[in-house]
Fold these 3 entries.
Entry 1:
Amino acid sequence: MARRLLSEVHPIFYFLSVWFRRLITYLMWSFEGKPFASLKSTEKLSYRVKKHQSVLIRKLGDTDMQLQHNKVINLSIAIERIDGIIIRPGETFSFCKLVGLTTKRKGYLPGILLSCGEAKPGIGGGICQIANLIHWLVIHSPLTVTKRYHHSFDPFPDDRRVLPFGSGATVFYNYIDYQFMNCTPYTFQLRLWLSEKCLEGELRVDQNLDFAYHVFEKDHQFLKIGNKYFRKNEIWRNKIIKRKSGEILETELVTKNFAEIKYVPDAYEQTDEVIYEGHNIT
């Protein structure tokens, strides 16, 4: 029998564990001396690096659709804290530091949260969709991702999903954060807005870059290991020169993904054991 964590024994221990971690993060913000991006501007920087949109309302298993509509409200509140943010050379973007704690007092409603191996309602649920979109924009740029977490499981089969599996980021205030740093001589800007059907966003820059990035997926596979199902892939990107018809400067592995899924895929490979990142999964 697997040993239970203290935070799993009683809700009070979970509450104390969460706030202990949050306190540690508050202290790190205060004393590590990292310059965080905080300046916002309503004026767009001159050049677009990348634009993307994601559908607001999707059918996710048998979850209550009202949670999806609540999510749209949550997104509208959160993007107000990020839209127009300027990331100057040497600065770090922190999702949690900008958005803050999602509470009823701020107008947040119950949405879908992925926690402890299941999808369940929670205040502020759904704002990870913003982190997903931002991460997709950032990996199409020379910005450096310094902190990123992905969901430990995939709860729903694809429904109008257009990005590769595992190309997003999850957040949970404030210690499961999404951060990137501007180690370039350029100034960047994030813009976010809601259209009728989509969350939309773009990454802009103050100078016209002569290079771009193409992000692609490799080795996607569904596996059945014992009585559980898993999904794996790799995400890569090519840095290309714009003026030379896409000549590749370099190819880079962005991330490897491996996660349990909570549904039965249409096709999969049966295996008894797999080694992932040095760990045996049986």
Note: Residues 11-31 form the longest helix (21 residues).
Entry 2:
Amino acid sequence: MQASEVPRAVDAAMSIASSLELAVEDAIVLQDSNKLTLRLLPCDVLARVAPVANQVAQLEIELAQRLTEAGSPVAVLEPRVQPCVYERDGFVVTLWTYYEPATLPEISAADYAHALHRLHTGMRKLDVPTPHFTDRVEQAQQLVASRDRTPELADADRMLLGHTLRDLRQMISEHGCAEQLLHGEPHPGNVLSTNNGPLFIDLETCCRGPVEFDLAHAPDEVSEHYPGVNQDLLRQCRILVLAMITTWRWDRGDQLPNGRQLGMQWLDQIRAAR
């Protein structure tokens, strides 16, 4: 989120929570990316705030409710208020349960894999319209093709990313493996380590595809504990995901610290992998 928007976003979240009779005196910024994540005190509620444009908060709430009912390991909505999307001053706000970090914050690969498998099991029961994973690949392809949006990307690197995204998208699509609803980005940043075990957050990236696409976002050792993995497909998905996240680093609007440095490192990894 743009730095100039943060104070307004915080005010919007605090105002909405107060109007719902939650005690709010302070807001602590926990994460600032495409959404702002706040811990509201003393009510101890987690607020996620995003600009109204291009947000999918309603889908995220629906998925969270249905996955919670299915017993899937996901963060739950705040039970003291209505489970809906609140809007104020150009922002949408959703309110969630705040979880204290676990005493031992490190999640083992086995626990990570077990939680992801449980999540996938719950997701297979849902029939919810979501994008296909190839739609997200196409977004990366469009970014690579736009010199205006990626002005610092060298021609040779642009060609490497473009070919990698195109080739791997086609190869994975032609695999013919079973597809289902996926988290979309179950990387460690979207997994909470709680005293009740790992919980997945940020369901706005959900899409359809093979489970190997999700596994490609997790640490490598997680796949060793996940049953029935197609290793050839997983390798292809890992290269594809690496090309996608590398592409985001060259977006002129990317705000990830050391983003360009990571982009250079990942380009070298893609060359080696290909």
Note: Residues 25 and 41 are 6 Å apart (CA to CA).
Entry 3:
Amino acid sequence: MSTVVDRSSADPSSGVPPLGGPSTPAPGARHAPGSAEPDRLRRRATRILAPGVLALIVLVFAILTPTFATGGNAVSVLSAGSLVAIAACAMTVVVRGGGIDLSIGVAVDLAALGATALIADGYVTWFAVVVGVAFGTLAGVVNALLVTVLRIRAFLATLSVWFVGTSVQQLLTDGGAPIYLRRPTTPDSFAALGNATVAGVPLPVVVAAGVAVVTWLLLDRTRWGRVVTAAGEQRTATTIAGRATRPALGAAFVVAAAIASVAGVLLASRSYGFVGGSGQAYVLDAIGAVFIGATLSRYGRPNVLGTLVGVLVFTILSNGLALLGVSYYYDGLVRGVVLVALLVTASVLARGTLGPSIRGLRRRRPAST
């Protein structure tokens, strides 16, 4: 009797349901006659769904407003989405391992707080940046301990860190008072991090591109990334095979917090200061972008390229609505509708792909018992 392993099962400590998306049929499963070609078409349709939606959004806004399809607006879109892209790359690392991190915004805020406070006290830029990133990474260290040592579900562990991190910001700033930097006294090297350009491209966009490449290399070109991926998709099987999954997953939370901290430093530089809770604005967009991007993978696997497509979907929607003069209150509504429509469509296509295989297994089950 052959045993079929469900590749979408996740460890109970993950606190996040398996990602929807197309999956490969179980070994030995046969498609119904004539079903192979429809299955291939559905898989291809699922993988081009998010890029197709992005192209449609661009086309609609380009028709509705002439200022949308300009070089200046393209730079504005990339600049606006750069910090979200970095936060979404951080989220991709954790979700790839079968978890979720609600404290990404805390890492952003703590990094911004640490860097801003040191610059305000007269410290040099490199020291402020290093300390800021280290301060934000502490959130990931605590997450790793809670999830891998105490074995608390990732959702609950990171939610707890979110509560604690928010209070820490308030305690360190006398109730959440903003810290503003005076532009004349702010070191040029620090101000340049969030405001300079490289060949006409904002430096945060360049940094976001570099972070995306590094994240891709870590997840897809290193042994650690392969362990994280396997643990997120088949935790039990990976453990039985002798892989040290818990250290790898703990490192995923630390790496994610460090990546998010980069966004925090850039945020502090761009805004010339720190405002408590600013990083929370990136959390939901990052989660949505990761799950949109997972549709690009034939396995429903979070991936950096797909995540960036998801970020562009959200960023371009906001930009286009603003150019059309639509009230800001409709922004969340439109983005939510697009997200739901895209994920529902991907889910329907995925079920259509699995249908013939499941029916075939059911027909053969009596013969194997």
Note: The beta strands are 179-180, 197-198, 201-202, 273-274.
